[in-house]
Design goal:
mainly beta; two-stranded antiparallel sheet; 5 strands; PITH_dom_sf; PITH domain-containing protein; PITH1-like; Galactose-bd-like_sf
Length: about 130
């Protein structure tokens, strides 16, 4: 069965949580913020725009939306796997409702050893289709 989940934090790459670049300095509070945060990040599922998920070359339309689930449901395989329609390549576009920082991605492959051999990530791509390199 295939499954995908992402963990991370809300906010941009600057570390301030508000999407703005942040300059670290003594007393800025970042050390305390990081000390009290979950080292694995937040489950970003609730921040995914599920209706806008798009998958190029999925065998059955709409399946990409079924394999992206909250971490608590990672072993629930009732909705089936995500498989490509032809060839081996698939492109899944996962839009978020706000700016996030992805810290990890969990991908569970199929029962018979079926799993992607390569996973490529692109951020903030404007034009995405199956030909993306």
């Amino acid at each position: 069965q295939n499954w995908l989940a992402m963990e991370g934090s809300i906010g941009g790459s600057g570390g301030g949580g508000d999407g703005q670049d942040h300059q670290h300095h003594p007393g800025c509070g970042c050390a305390e913020e990081h000390k009290n945060s979950d080292p694995f990040g937040l489950d970003l599922f609730e921040l995914i725009d599920l209706n806008a998920i798009n998958c190029f070359n999925e065998r059955k339309s709409g399946m990409a939306k079924n394999v992206i689930r909250p971490i608590a449901e990672k072993l629930n395989f009732e909705k089936g796997p995500l498989k490509s329609g032809y060839g081996q390549d698939m492109v899944v576009v996962i839009p978020f409702t706000c700016e996030v920082r992805v810290k990890s991605i969990c991908l569970i492959g199929g029962d018979d050893g079926e799993a992607p051999s390569t996973l490529k990530l692109y951020k903030n791509e404007e034009a995405v289709d199956i030909s993306i390199q």
